[in-house]
Amino acid sequence: MDSSETQSPTVTQREQWMVESQVFQMYELLSSVPRNAQSVLLELQRDKHIEFLTNGLRQLGPSFCVLDANRPWLCYWILHSIALLGDSVDDELENNTIDFLSRCQDPNGGYGGGPGQMPHLATTYAAINALITLGGHRSLSSINRGKVYTFLRRMKDPSGAFRMHDAGEMDVRACYTAISVASVLTILDDELVKGVGNFILSCQTYEGGISGEPGSEAHGGYTFCGLATMVLIGEVNRLDLTSLIDWVVFRQGVEGGFQGRTNKLVDGCYSFWQGGVFALIQKLHSIIEEQLRLLDAGGSAIDSPQLASISCHSGKRGLHDTSGSAKFSNIGFNFLKEPAEMEPLFHSIALQQYIILCSQLQEGGFRDKPGKHRDYYHTCYCLSGLSVAQYSYSKDADSPPLPRAVFGPYSNLLEPIHPLYNVILDLYHEAHEFFSTS
Amino acid sequence: MFPNHISSRRQGWGELLGNSSLLSSMYFSCPSNVWHFRRLILEALNADLHEELNFIKKVANGNPKNYQIWHHRRWVAEKLGSDATSKELDFTKKILSLDAKNYHAWSHRQWVLQELGGWEDELDYCKQLLEDDIFNNSAWNQVCFNTCQRNTVFALSTLLDLLCHGFQPSQDFINAVDALKTPDLDLSDSNLATAVCSVLGHMDPMRVNYWAWRKNKLPAQTA
């Protein structure tokens, strides 16, 4: 090799070095300032975030025309963020939001981006999660479950996957939004489930992560969606979980945060998409053990008949009730009961450090990375990821973490979530109770 | 919101396809609906879809990561069929020259290769990208995609030839082919050789007639 030959850095390298230098600057800043300034930097700026979020909700009117199709998303991102911070909105705002979302409901089922717009799986997911986050009888009863079911059936493709809207694109996102909604509303059945597992399996790549469509690159967002969906339909044992783990652990970079794909840049939103994968993995302990055992024994990790019976974390409790939708309706609920038998496989404190020091803005809101602007999407997923990280050492989904599990002051602690749906745990329970009995 | 009687309103609609700024702002304020509406008009007017590709190109310039635009492009390309192949490969190449990791562009490119063909130069293209930036994981993924797709078709066609020559398959082969079946394939294929032909017809659409012909011509005793 010619020693005088120097390769100039590639685009990937240049961009990565720039981000690293900005991030490390922020970490160095922390260690160089006096103690009282330090504690400000380590603190979650709750009041500022609430202010930023509440203003966003109030302004969801004419001034938001660019994101007109995204208003249900904005409702969810904002309401969920407020709930994570342990706060809530006033009655007027709550009622206005319920009314608005009701007007987004299509007469034939599903929710569109705004009143009169075509129903779409993503906005349906957002609207329903937003309504669950508001909670209460008025909010939950505004959801026409029968019509939602009809809409989901219409979005189902013969191949097994789902389309985002009439004649829309088919991908793992569509599968997750459909299955998540059906599950949380307790309307998930064999008709909706059939073939979904095959489609998602075909999206697990050679890297171990999951792509949006068969053949595409392994991607954090789709990996969360794919894994959560497989859990919800009781087929998670069919995924190669060991190679999925092997892929996702290397997505946490020196910055502490996560990248979405190999050799791409860190982004605060992956705190949830990738961090959430770890939260799910922790509950799949027995299936993973079995897959590892089979690998050691020289077999294929996914062909074991024992696996099929351990399947979906309902292992010991059994999944023997095969009557239609009852078969699937308790998966989400029972998932919570599985203790987290293993320590988190990611560095929880490093992730929290990235979120608080690099994504958080002192004036309120969260961003992708230093240099980017804040927005509600990043605020939602940075906070969701922060919650996941804070509770990652807790054996049970809602048992309060030890102080050492929380980066910064203990007052930074957020509300716990249900990692399959990304709604606040208590609010999930309220909704589950409501939909199971109505 | 959407008119029921398209034919009666034909005349004014040609204008609606035009690239006015009003229309542009509609496309980003109300995505799914407006693109859907546009597709209805394009069909009703039997519009020139090559022109439509040019229109999408302009719109995509400022919005290379917009789901609706890429979905619309796929719809148009599907209608044009293999007429669109080189245009689509050029288009994705152009987008990737600005952002070599654009997820939508790669997915679209894979769809084009899968449905319309054009594989011949793909590995060379990946090689070029990797020479520019060896860390481009999207390009690595594409190399794998290329290899896996081509290899699977090659492996299956080899298996088919072997079966026609009297090869008795083990359960492993049967399972492997079974895993490749999609729900929409004719599941009444009772023997492996006809199943292989069905799968090949699906995975290798360029030669769908050939695989159907092979299925017809299978020797009587084939497993």
UniProtKB/TrEMBL annotation, chain A:
Its EC number(s): 2.5.1.58
InterPro entries membership: FTB, PGGT1B-like, Prenyltrans, Terpenoid_cyclase/PrenylTrfase
Segments forming domain Prenyltransferase alpha-alpha toroid: 44-423
Protein name: Protein farnesyltransferase subunit beta
Catalyzed reactions: L-cysteinyl-[protein] + (2E,6E)-farnesyl diphosphate = S-(2E,6E)-farnesyl-L-cysteinyl-[protein] + diphosphate
Parts forming coiled coils: none
Keywords on record: Metal-binding, Prenyltransferase, Repeat, Transferase, Zinc
Enzyme class: transferase
Subunit structure and binding partners: Heterodimer of FTA and FTB.
Family: Belongs to the protein prenyltransferase subunit beta family.
UniProtKB/TrEMBL annotation, chain B:
UniProt-listed Pfam families: PPTA (PF01239)
Claim: Transferase is one of the keywords in the record: yes
EC nos: 2.5.1.58, 2.5.1.59
Gene Ontology molecular functions: CAAX-protein geranylgeranyltransferase activity; protein farnesyltransferase activity
Residues annotated as signal peptide: none
Listed SUPFAM superfamilies: Protein prenylyltransferase
Cofactor: Mg(2+)
Keywords noted in UniProt: Magnesium, Prenyltransferase, Repeat, Transferase
Superkingdom, taxonomy of origin: Eukaryota
Family, as annotated: Belongs to the protein prenyltransferase subunit alpha family.
PANTHER family: PROTEIN FARNESYLTRANSFERASE ALPHA SUBUNIT/RAB GERANYLGERANYL TRANSFERASE ALPHA SUBUNIT, PROTEIN FARNESYLTRANSFERASE_GERANYLGERANYLTRANSFERASE TYPE-1 SUBUNIT ALPHA
The protein's name: Protein farnesyltransferase/geranylgeranyltransferase type-1 subunit alpha
Source species: Vitis vinifera (Grape)
